[in-house]
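Final report, Chapter 2: Outcomes

The project's central promise was a pipeline that accepts a single protein chain and returns its three-dimensional structure in a standardized token representation, suitable for archiving and comparison. That pipeline is now operational. To close this chapter, we reproduce one record exactly as it appears in the project archive, with the input sequence first and the structure output second.
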Amino acid sequence: MNQDRAIVHMDLDTFFVSCERLLDRKLIGKPVLIGGTTDRGVVASCSYEARTFGVHSAMPMRMARMLCPEAIILRGNSGIYSKFSNMVTEIIKEGVPLYEKSSIDEFYIDLTGMDKFFGCHQLATELRARIIKETGLPISFGLSLNKTVSKVATGEAKPNNQIQILKGAEKRFLAPLSIRKIPMVGDVTFKSLCDLGIKHIHTVQKMPMEMMYKVLGKNGLSIWKKANGIDESPVVPYRERQSISTERTFDRDTTDVKKLEGIIMAMAENLIYQLRRGNKLTACVTFKIRYSDFNTYTIQKRIPYSSADHKIIPVVMSLYKKLYQRRLLVRLIGVKFSHLVEGGYQIDLFEDDEKIINLYQAMDKMRERYGDRAVIKASGMHAKSISRWNPFNGEPPPLLANRRI
């Protein structure tokens, strides 16, 4: 591993809440929850005042209300959060040689070599101070020689602070922390490790790498490396997307076939347009459905590379009809296109004609000028909450504040 790297991880503290407090100063110092306001909603962001009651992100809003009855609940505005995120992005872009925007409120910055000119810690400190001054948003950072240690350090620095882990001190810094602090250790993996008596990082550090591989496979190897402060992953400004997808969770479980088919049609139509806008083709279509008993099923089909409505939508609908059981209430549906490659629409010499090609071009021009829903199929007109972000512009997908589970 390159021992001369300097990687900064910056994270905007309670980002959605901080944005709302800039707009309404009365929220300062009060417990605030942002997310879906219905019983199906989840907490997208919560203030530190709310966290003292046991509330955390991704918790069902119903449970959060029970833990913190006095909390102020806001639906949130993704457009405003994206605006503030872009402000921070522009400041970082101006001040550093290489950065990666990993989410709407998280950034990795590679300052390798900058110590010869300014000092990496000083440069990161000045950058953080500028962000706070120009945006009013609190932000924390961790600085070390790799992404993993820097991300963990940022978590330890919060709220609104900074930590530098000097070269050679990575294992010592990580050792006393919970194994849950390691990125990629989710609930299932954490439970598996706890069942083995592994609760802190120092336990993994003492274990042979082979044992972790035997227990958890490749995932175990990755956890062992991260626990020992080893991470050679680079800061990448843009990654080529391998798939695009969208999901919809209903406020109330439904068996309304017209409603289901209309939303599926709108989801597929929008994703296909995103393919053409990004000059992409898909070769694999996946449909997902979750019933009210939380049983979830997926089915996929390989197709010839395409980005045409009349080629892909019938495949999506046929997959839906194979999975759908009319007697069960539906909770969630989703559509995914994968195996993406670069390329324009492929003309079928036997089925396509000039009219269909001109139709797609005209539709896409109108959407570019007047918005994604300027031209839509009549059956999908009522699907108003379909995500309409551009998946191929290098930006991470927006985390919708009013998301549902």
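Archive annotation: The longest helix spans residues 257-277.
This record, like all others produced under the grant, will remain available to the consortium after the project formally closes.
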